């Protein structure tokens, strides 16, 4: 039986009426995305047709999911909200703080020893406030959610950008910052700009070496890392219906890499099969009763150009395997072209590691397809030329895969089976063949491959592919290996070829698990005491940010002008810094240390206008803070691309940065800045970015008139006394301006609750 089945049935009971009302006000047939959005309005029934990409709308999500790294700050904030219990079903999943090193058992034991303080904190807060708690080792948040909580037609938010994975089960599931989650936990609406809609029509059927992963690798190449910003990607067509539910999840998961708000598929037979296989017959039965409302209207899919803002068509029968990378997930290369492209770009051909898993590709089907390639290596006497690492998606998958002999196949190839956790995908990897800064290549089935992400080495060239392609390339040891045409020499000196992968959608004998790792909260947690030691390095109770004084901001100094790609990994690195995710002051020591200074092309090396000397970004900023001098960060396009981590907004806020001015923002990061009381602006004229000089001072001369839809004027004073006056845009609405005035959205919540 499903968790929260009564809530799910309630959603379905009101769906028909709400969809019909929405169809009436919109005046035309509806996409699936619109049905879910309009049926989850905070004001219950649709009163108007919202303008896509323009209108801010309040929604009422059905549930919330948090991973341990972001849950710390989210729950520290919720503790200040003055609520005895969360208002919406919420879960916490411990998957980020487990480092991959020696193998599952040893790594999990070490994590429980080194991070026990954090796990105890999360467990006690969950128990106190009515939150479901998934222990370390239970699995990767998004796979656990897909197996236990996701349901067709639902709306979910989560404090991880890959919350979108649940779109594989027909949800509108959106990654948010912790402050957004706190709003909903506290019983308040969740605000989102009504998304634009991108339709992807899938025809044909996957075959041979091509996998669901190749669909999103292809889409990433088409849309680029910012082409989906502000939009929901909705997949449809015969090709969509032909894929497995977990395959759909893979595609939706990596939609975060094109900046999409989320991605989704209509309810179909594969989703019903998955629900029943994961012991949720009650959800499948309830969904079947409202099946017509859990997919787009027929007229929409018959004439998609009339209903979507953009339409992409992909013939799955013609799609070929891809590898994307290095250093960005949208650099798409068909494997058949890799030999020429690698040579042209001087990418290292030798592959040192093949890594399979992550929230993107760790399902039972993924493991079976990769295992079918691994078994061939054993049968055909092929010794892998690369190291192998495996991260199962959940304890249920791990237990079932071990029962069915899948893990033994990998172990027979000397693969290391890591814990059911994120591991190398988020930089939680103590690489056994550490390369320092040596140029090298790895291939993995993860979603992101930014510089330094997996192992901290800026010269590790990471390429993203399907699990089966990763397995084949790791066996060959070559980046340019094309299993559809290339032969390999086995231990007997014979040339052999790998056969096409074979996968099993769902385990023939069903899923099985002894201890899934779930801990239910007490019915009444009021007596539970949450302890945070005053001298803790890992956890720190929050001090509210100061409200705006209502005056113009004058005399602000430039902290850093970031050059090129500046993701949340550059602003607040993961890896070893994950240990400080619950301690704002300590983790602020990584603030912007990965951003490239446009004036010297170095990282963590900026000029202090107080001393004229160069130093680290956090140290320099702390000096400004001590002197009470406000500062400004300037950035390029898609600033804050990547994960949902609100630390990338909270750290500069904590250290005294007042304003971020960029060419364009990634959606989640812009919202996070607003929530934390920061001023996030964009250049009205992008070329004004080039006017900013190293010793500049900024005067925001009409901030006193801060209003919705009104540009802000910035006087940029250069060291020689000359000035440039530039215009900046913003997307703050009246409610968000109140966040700014109060110092943060949380301050406003506390004020309202008081």
TrEMBL record:
InterPro entries from the UniProt entry: Acnase/IPM_dHydase_lsu_aba_1/3 (IPR015931), Acoase/IPM_deHydtase_lsu_aba (IPR001030), Aconitase/3IPM_dehydase_swvl (IPR015928), Aconitase/IPM_isomerase (IPR050926), Aconitase_4Fe-4S_BS (IPR018136), Aconitase_4Fe-4S_dom (IPR036008), Aconitase_dom2 (IPR015932), Aconitase_mito-like (IPR006248)
Annotated Aconitase/3-isopropylmalate dehydratase large subunit alpha/beta/alpha domain residues: 34-477
Classification via Pfam families: Aconitase, Aconitase_C
Pathway: Carbohydrate metabolism; tricarboxylic acid cycle; isocitrate from oxaloacetate: step 2/2
UniProt keyword terms in alphabetical order: Iron, Iron-sulfur, Lyase, Metal-binding, Transit peptide, Tricarboxylic acid cycle
UniProt-listed PROSITE patterns: ACONITASE_1
Catalytic activity, as annotated: citrate = D-threo-isocitrate
Cofactor(s) for this UniProt protein: [4Fe-4S] cluster
Matches recorded under SUPFAM superfamilies: Aconitase iron-sulfur domain (SSF53732), LeuD/IlvD-like (SSF52016)
Taxonomy, superkingdom: Bacteria
Name of the top EC class for this enzyme: lyase
EC assignment: 4.2.1.3
Domain Aconitase A/isopropylmalate dehydratase small subunit swivel: 557-686
Family of the protein in this entry: Belongs to the aconitase/IPM isomerase family.
Protein name: Aconitate hydratase A
Lineage: Bacteria, Pseudomonadati, Bacteroidota, Flavobacteriia, Flavobacteriales
Gene from which this protein is expressed: acnA
């Amino acid at each position: 039986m499903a968790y929260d089945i009564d809530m799910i049935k309630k959603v379905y009971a009101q769906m028909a009426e709400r969809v019909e009302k929405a169809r009436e006000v919109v005046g035309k047939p509806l996409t699936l995305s619109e049905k879910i959005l309009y049926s989850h309005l905070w004001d219950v029934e649709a009163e108007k047709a919202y303008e896509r990409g323009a209108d801010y709308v309040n929604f009422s999500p059905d549930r919330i999911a948090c991973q341990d790294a972001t849950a710390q700050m989210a729950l520290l904030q919720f503790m200040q909200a003055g609520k005895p219990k969360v208002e919406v079903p919420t879960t916490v999943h411990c998957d980020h703080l487990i480092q991959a090193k020696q193998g599952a058992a040893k790594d999990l034991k070490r994590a429980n020893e080194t991070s026990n303080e954090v796990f105890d904190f999360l467990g006690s807060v969950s128990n106190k406030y009515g939150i479901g708690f998934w222990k370390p080792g239970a699995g990767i948040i998004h796979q656990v959610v897909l197996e236990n909580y996701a349901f067709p037609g639902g709306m979910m938010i989560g404090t991880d950008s890959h919350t979108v994975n649940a779109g594989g089960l027909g949800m509108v599931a959106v990654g948010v910052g912790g402050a957004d989650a706190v709003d909903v936990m506290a019983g308040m609406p969740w605000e989102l700009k009504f998304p634009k809609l991108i339709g992807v029509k899938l025809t044909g059927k996957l075959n041979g070496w091509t996998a669901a992963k190749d669909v999103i690798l292809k889409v990433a190449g088409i849309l680029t890392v910012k082409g989906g910003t502000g939009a929901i990607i909705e997949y449809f067509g015969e090709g969509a219906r032909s894929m497995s539910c977990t395959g759909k999840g893979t595609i939706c998961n990596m939609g975060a890499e094109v900046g999409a708000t989320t991605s989704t598929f209509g309810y179909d037979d594969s989703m019903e099969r998955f629900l029943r296989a994961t012991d949720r017959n009650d959800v499948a039965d309830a969904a079947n009763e409202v099946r017509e409302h859990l997919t787009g209207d027929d007229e929409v899919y018959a004439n998609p150009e009339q209903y979507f803002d953009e339409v992409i068509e992909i013939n799955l029968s013609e799609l070929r395997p891809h590898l994307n990378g290095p250093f960005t997930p949208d650099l798409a290369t068909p494997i058949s072209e890799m030999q020429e492209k690698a040579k042209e770009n001087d990418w290292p051909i030798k592959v040192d590691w093949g890594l399979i898993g992550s929230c993107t590709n760790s399902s039972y089907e993924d493991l079976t397809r990769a295992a079918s390639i691994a078994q061939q290596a054993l049968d055909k006497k092929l010794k892998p030329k690369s190291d192998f690492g495996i991260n199962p998606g959940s304890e249920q998958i791990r237990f079932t895969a071990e029962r069915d002999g899948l893990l033994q196949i990998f172990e027979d190839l000397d693969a290391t089976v890591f814990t059911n956790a994120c591991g190398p995908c988020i930089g939680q990897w103590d690489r056994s063949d550490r390369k320092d800064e040596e140029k090298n290549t790895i291939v993995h089935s993860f979603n992101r491959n930014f510089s330094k992400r997996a192992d901290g080495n800026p010269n590790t060239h990471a390429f993203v592919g399907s699990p089966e392609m990763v397995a084949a390339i790791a066996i060959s040891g070559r980046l340019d290996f094309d299993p559809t045409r290339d032969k390999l020499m086995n231990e007997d000196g014979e040339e052999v070829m790998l056969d096409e992968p074979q996968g099993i959608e769902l385990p023939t004998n069903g899923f099985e698990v002894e201890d899934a790792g779930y801990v239910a909260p007490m019915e009444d947690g009021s007596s539970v005491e949450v302890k945070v030691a005053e001298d803790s390095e890992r956890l720190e109770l929050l001090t509210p940010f100061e409200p705006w004084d209502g005056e113009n901001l004058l005399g602000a100094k430039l902290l850093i002008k970031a050059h090129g790609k500046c993701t949340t990994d550059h602003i607040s690195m993961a890896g070893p810094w994950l240990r400080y995710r619950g301690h704002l002051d300590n983790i602020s020591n990584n603030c912007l240390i990965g951003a490239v200074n446009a004036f010297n092309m170095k990282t963590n090396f900026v000029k202090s206008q107080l001393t004229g000397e160069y130093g680290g970004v956090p140290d320099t900023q702390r000096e400004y803070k001590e002197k009470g001098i406000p500062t400004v960060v300037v950035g390029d396009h898609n600033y804050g691309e990547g994960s949902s981590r609100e630390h990338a907004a909270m750290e500069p806020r904590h250290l005294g940065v007042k304003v971020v001015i960029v060419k364009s923002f990634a959606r989640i990061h812009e919202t996070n800045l607003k929530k934390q009381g920061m001023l996030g602006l964009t250049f009205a004229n992008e070329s004004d970015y080039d006017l900013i000089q190293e010793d500049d001072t900024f005067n925001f001369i009409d901030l006193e008139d801060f209003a919705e839809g009104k540009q802000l004027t910035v006087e940029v004073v250069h060291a020689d006394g000359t000035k440039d006056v530039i215009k900046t845009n913003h997307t703050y609405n009246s409610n968000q301006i109140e966040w700014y005035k109060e110092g943060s959205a949380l301050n406003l919540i506390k004020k309202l609750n008081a």
